[in-house]
Sequence to fold (401 residues):
Amino acid sequence: MKNLKDLAIFGGDPMFDTPLHVGRPNIPDRKLLLDRINDILDRRWLTNNGPYVREFEKKIAEFTGARHCICMCNGTVALEIAIRAAGLTGEVIVPSFTFIATAHALQWQEITPVFCDIDPKTHNLDPDCVEKLITPRTTGIIGVHLWGRPCNVERLQEIARGRGLKLLFDAAHAFGCSCKGRMVGNFGNAEVFSFHATKFLNSFEGGAIVTNDDELAGKIRLMKNFGFAGLDRVIYIGTNGKMNEISAAAGLTGLEGIDEVVTANRRNYRQYRRQLGGLPGFGIMAYNEKERCNYQYVVIVIDERTVGISRDDLVRILREENVLARRYFFPGAHKMEPYRSYFPNAGILLPETERLAGQIISLPTGTSVDKEDITKVCELIKFMAANGKKISRMLAAVGPS
Ligand code: T4K
Fold:
């Protein structure tokens, strides 16, 4: 790219003919998956705790080292069930800088999500802020291991223990990650994974609760199956949270191939770091490579004053070039409905959340993105960085999108 006029937003051809996505699914070994789907059809056992679901649960428990894994139809229902089974009521402390499902899983059951600020270094719950938000109505804390980088689990566990609170983790991003050498899945009262299509490990749609608490696991198993404790015996209020056999087959097949996914993700992450490292105004979120990481997200934090162009304009230009970058998790859950109406002043206590939500860009990565793609994306970013102020002036003439 040599001239500003070459940018698609100013009339040039897009850099990519087909879009580069954030969250393009990893596709497992087709033959293995199709063989398993044939087994399912031959067996005529499609759902309701089928053999592939049981095998997937066993493999996840082994992989994480947790005593129990209960698979579910998606991560959101898994969160709702974990919240209910853990007995949360009243107020629960959660980050606002997360996917909206974390907050909705509470509000759906008329539990108030109390939004807590994050540590700008980790993008996760700031334990000091958590302590300040505890009231007599608080029953629990839900930490989110954002981008697969674990929360400060030690401090959160200390706080929860000291104040008699339940502690859950939304580990939707953190399958395959460790914290101080221990796999995610072993912290708090329970942890929740998502196996949505866009996740590191996918089962098309799916999720799971993992826990080391036998009693809680028993309750969760019943709750995800309408509360049935026998053929005609219901002992709890329950729902339908069951995972079906095709999802379990996809999850199992994906699990067998996760090493290749980690290799591809790590290669992409390191290439982005090499090519964008040191570029003024562009900070690349770092993984702690001493731990196990899934490297599923490549996230950059933009300092608009240094770059001379806003984060939103950068995303707009990237998307015109068919680089479908995302502003995850803009604008923060507290600025989405119903929370923005319920708590119009929540932002006063969320300065770091609001700052970061305005600076973040998720870039395409995963097994569908190759070395040349990343080279071109980085060249485009460097071109924008070198011409930030000029581009901003030209965009002002083009007008809003
Ligand atoms: N907690 C956290 C912290 C989460 O991040 C999530 C989910 C949950 C809880 C809830 O778990 P689930 O109930 O979803 O299991 C996506 C996902 O839908 C969502 O699962 C995920 N977080 C969130 C971070 O991202 P969107 O609305 O951004 O997805 P969408 O449809 O725009 O897809 C993302 C990109 O992937 C697009 O560019 C298209 C591409 N894509 C997507 C799908 C589904 C494909 O190429 N193929 C596909 O099949 O929410």
